[in-house]
Amino acid sequence: MAETNESTAVAEPETIQSIARALVELAHEENRLTGSLVNLAEARNKLADRRTAAAEQRTTLAGERTDMAREQTKLGTRSTELAEHRTRLSEERTEKAGRRTQLAQERTGLANRRTELSEKRTDLAQDRTTLAQSRTELSGKRTDLAGERTTLAGTRTDLSSYRSLLARGRTELAFIRTGLAFVALGFGLMRYFGLGPWTILDGGLVAVGGVTAIFGLTRFVRTTRLERRFERRLAHLLGAEEGTG
Predict the structure, then answer these.
(1) Which parts of the chain sit beneath pLDDT 70?
(2) What are the extents of the domains in the chain?
(3) What 8-state DSSP symbol labels residue 198?
């Protein structure tokens, strides 16, 4: 009985230790389960976040799909408008093709007209050549006449100068005549009244008349020389014109 009690007393601590180890293992297992639950909760939260993001992305895609549908509708409308415009362009092209055909016919008529005008232009060119030859001959004659006119102009200039010299000679002769008249008047007065208070006036008339006559005579001699020179020159020009004629 004593041995039984001793073996029981020995077995109880071992049982307690086994229970304690089992409790420790259960505590560890509970901690592991708690960590797993925490991890599962975090994973669930992550999945919820992903699902929320996926829902938002799906909403965005739905909006984009709606926009694409609207754009597709607009493109369909634009395609219809382009088809109508293309139809109008085809009609305009057909009309322009008809217009081009008409213009081609008109161009053919104009080409025929141009050919006729070319022939007339050729005839006119021949006539113009004939007229050019006649004009050349007339130009030669006109050149000869221009030369003669130049010669006549020179002669006329010389005659004008000669006429001016003659007029100057007449003026100088008038000076001589006036001077002689004053001299004659002075001598006549002195002879009529004799010597007296008026003799100074009479002598002044004689002096003025003498100076005037001498001045006119000097100028007249110079003018006479120029007249002789012009006469020789005019004789030479007139002789040359007679020889040309």
Answers:
(1) 1-11, 194, 196-197, 238-245
(2) 155-244
(3) T
**End-to-end Cα separation, the chain, in angstroms:** 199
- pLDDT (tens digit, 9 = 90+) per residue, 120-172? 999 999 999 989 998 998 998 898 888 888 877 877 887 888 788 788 889 98
Centre a 10 Å sphere on the Cβ of residue 226 and count the other Cβ atoms it contains. Answer: 15
What is the C-alpha to C-alpha distance for residues 199 and 204, in angstroms, rounded to an integer?
8
pLDDT at 174: 92
Tell me the CB-side half-sphere exposure of residue 84, using CA atoms within 13 A.
5
Secondary structure class of 197 (helix, strand, coil): coil
Element housing 245 (H / E) = none
Amino acid, single-letter form, for residue 69:
A
Number of H helices, E strands in the chain: 2, 0
The closest of 161, 148, 153 to 231, measured between CA atoms, is 161
Q: Which two three-digit tokens encode residue 127?
A: 């006539």
C-alpha distances in angstroms, 190 versus 74, 154, 166, 182, 185?
138, 54, 36, 12, 9
Residue of 213, 211, 204 lying closest to 180 (CA atoms) = 213
The alpha carbons of the chain give a radius of gyration, in whole angstroms, of: 73
